[in-house]
Batch of 4 targets.
Target 1
Amino acid sequence: MVGICRTLVASPRFDGVILIVLNALVLGAQTHDGIEASYGDVLEALNDVALGVFVVELVICLTAYLPHPGRFFRHGWNVFDFVVVTGSFLPGLRENATLLRMLRLARVVRAVRLLPDLRIVVVAVVRSIPGVGSLAVMTLLLVYLYGMVGWVMFDTADPDNFGNVGQAMLTMFVLLSLENLPTYIETGQELSDWTVLFYISYVLVASFLIFNLFIGIVINSMQEARELEHRREREAERAAAGKTSDAEADFTITVKDRIDELPTALEDLEQELDARALSRAH
């Protein structure tokens, strides 16, 4: 029984992308009053059928990890699936229409783990949170400093946008997108031509620099997520090859591992050449 469950879980056909899509369509149909009034019972029955299939899928996945079911919860996506599916049976939740719909909507999010490219994007977003958080703090500090300077400069000339530090910070935050920048520059020039430096410096530092740093953080996180996904695929291939006596599969894994090591080997050779060149120069 456990072997059959493991075979099912390892099969690419096991993941019910079509069922998740159909479940999403049913949830969307329930937002239309006319459809809900005419086919509400049918849509509710379809939701229950989808939940039943998801429960069976969850039981099969848990069985595949026997005799160590705890290993199932070592994977974040498995924990997410378990919470989303079992949450529908919590006491009192089915009586709360809003929470029940949110939980059903979360079942649609399960499609993320079934699509490798989309899974990479999600992992990249999660890994970029610390860097983006630090960047957000720096941006807030910058907006506050420029907001204070703007309040000092334009408090009486432009009270609608710089009447207090809160309004000034909101104005500077909107200026991150460069919206209405020419209008603000014209208003400032009516006070003094030197105010142009205030806006130019802000655009260069806040808008261009901040957004480029943000893009850099996201790109770096995407690269890390791709490496993690690539490593996971290699481990899955290595585990599958270890369960068979196929010499061709073992050879393929060995060649792929050596190919993966090539960038590191080339980097080591380049560092060795640089070290030799430096030693000869001295």
Target 2
Amino acid sequence: MKKEIEMANYSETKNDLIRLEYPRSNDEISSPLIIKGEARGYWFFEASFPVVLVDSDGLMIAQGIATAKSDWMTENFVPFKAELKFEKPEHKENGVLILKKDNPSGLPENDDALEIPVIFK
């Protein structure tokens, strides 16, 4: 139980940059996974940012793009939505959903991400 609390606190450290409506830390997920939330406009580039789902070994099982649902050229929060289709990994119950700040510059100092632990249903 303590690990769940620690991971939930990690997502709260990004609350001023990106917030998830669904899924939340340690939610059970299945395919297709509909991801909803809001992020500051500068988290996007050209109204989108990458989303990746990995298993507990860090192996990618799905990737996609989150898209802004309103004008993203702002410093305010902008709602977004993404959909990931995936097959539940064999012998793996846990994974991580990673929402990456789009970084067209490629400079490491501009990288950022929100990582949410999930449980495969």
Target 3
Amino acid sequence: MIAVLICQIVLSVVLAAVFLIRPSVTHAVSWKILAFIGLCVLPALCIVGGMNTHIQRSEQTQFCISCHVMIPYGQSLYVDDPSHIPAQHFQNHRVPADMACYSCHADYTIYGPLKDKMQGLTRIYKQYVSTPPDPTAIRIAGGFKNA
């Protein structure tokens, strides 16, 4: 997927450069179609593909614990204590290890992933632009449904 995105980006840049350097080539209909593909369609595909790749990567445990605020939570997955629920779920493979955070913290409704991403973006915004929340006060929004 990444290789396809890189090829699309390179092709978009090359085509854009050709049409900016020599706009006269677009007098023929076939070149106008190629210009439309190179200047509109390929960049749109790059944006959609990039967003899809980012959403998939943001569901990974490594992505979650890459934030310095979440490092202690990532380390808690390896605690050797049978009463520590996240560690037990992670260590006994009751949740996928590569998606441990997302498995419990995602809202599994039709718009759940989008809502979760927006909450995450809000937290990132608060971390860097506003006052960051107290890390000990991080809670699952709406509680966790055990069913």
Target 4
Amino acid sequence: MSGYRYTGEKLPPDEMKKRMHTSRNKMREQDQRARARNFEEVNLGYDAKTATKEAKRCLLCPTSPCVEGCPVHIKIPEFLQKVAEGKFIEALDVIMQDNVLPAITGRVCPQEIQCEGSCTQRKASGEAVGIGYLERFVADYERNSSRKCSIEIAPPTGKKVAIVGSGPGGLSAAADLARMGHEVHVFEALHKPGGVLVYGIPEFRLPKEIISYEIKRLESMGVKIHTNHLIGRIYTVDELLEEKGFGAVYLGIGAGLPRFMGIEGENLNGVYSANEYLTRSNLMKAYRFPKYDTPVMKGKNVAVIGGGNVAMDAVRTAVRLGANNAYLIYRRSREQMPARDEEVKHAEEEGVKFMFLTKPVRYIGDEQGWVRKMECIKMKLGEIDESGRRKAIPIEGTEFMLDIDIVVVSIGTGANPLLTGTTPGLETNKWGYIEVDEQLRTTKKGVFAGGDIVRGGATVILAMGDGRKAAKAMDEYLKTGEWE
């Protein structure tokens, strides 16, 4: 619970009624026919006039359920009121108190089930205030302006902290700890910082220049980022604590171990994990081959297995790489897909062919070992299972073949054991995820953890919420030395 209540301006009854009957302003988008063949951003953002109009739809309700719905508890009514007044930099100042990556979260957060899902306007009119769109707007406005938001940094404490992993959780923790006056070092295994933001999310959804800008902001706050540093190999966690002078360590290493279905033919050429497929395209720019020397197969008939946002990113990437047929194979119905509604809508507009209630049974290859066909079976929905969704059950006798030359498996990821396996005293659960308490303290003194390596697959903003919570607990530990 954030405990936040909006105590600012209250709307007169006539204005309240007017706002409750005002429709949501649409986001401008790149033409669907053009965008299906380029990697430029699909959503084009609000202009200042539209942003101001949209912000004026906020009902400024004192209970502020939108804040409770936000994992980092941005003071949403305050920032929306600033936008409504045309005070865009001041609006960003409000956001930055709780979220140091607004241009990113404004683009990739599932607002429809978080802040906007809790919006009173949504309950009143059926259309939530475009909180995510407005967060993105003010962040983009500042990036293109000579005026910058203000960030206060406390006097140096003389304490050093290590952040392992430069994904959204690690960056959020780093920002808060830097603000508190600590010396912060971020260790990233890859050659660019950003974690899943750079290797997992395509350019058409999150431009890399946005990530670079936000990371440079952190560096201006004094955060030191070390790329090509695989903790567990270059240094162990024990070495960071005992030899390198770090008073505390935060593990935000994600869960990047691909999962497969364990069916026949998964070892054929042309069968990718979503991690590899997207990393080749996003981080290593395979979509610009041969300008960049990382190839990725550009299949004509591509099947992506899964129903989450990563699956959407993969299948929409396949479209842009020239697939004649880009199939999204999902064992349940559309209503049960975990992907964002907006991503599904964009995929449909771009020509993705959805095959619901369908499950792969095996992959069939040619004499050279390349995948050529996929045998599928139709499914039906049964009783509700442990996930809270109706179980998908195969229907006997409904097998069929589909011609394919690329398969991308996107059914989730697991915990990579490299770091945990080199850290004595760090306990994990039966799935390999790190065990933590309510303060995100691990079983090893001085070591904290959050994000996917604790939760399993989650969202950018939930990882950021963990980073902020851990930063607060780390600051307390650095001050007191108390662990129990």
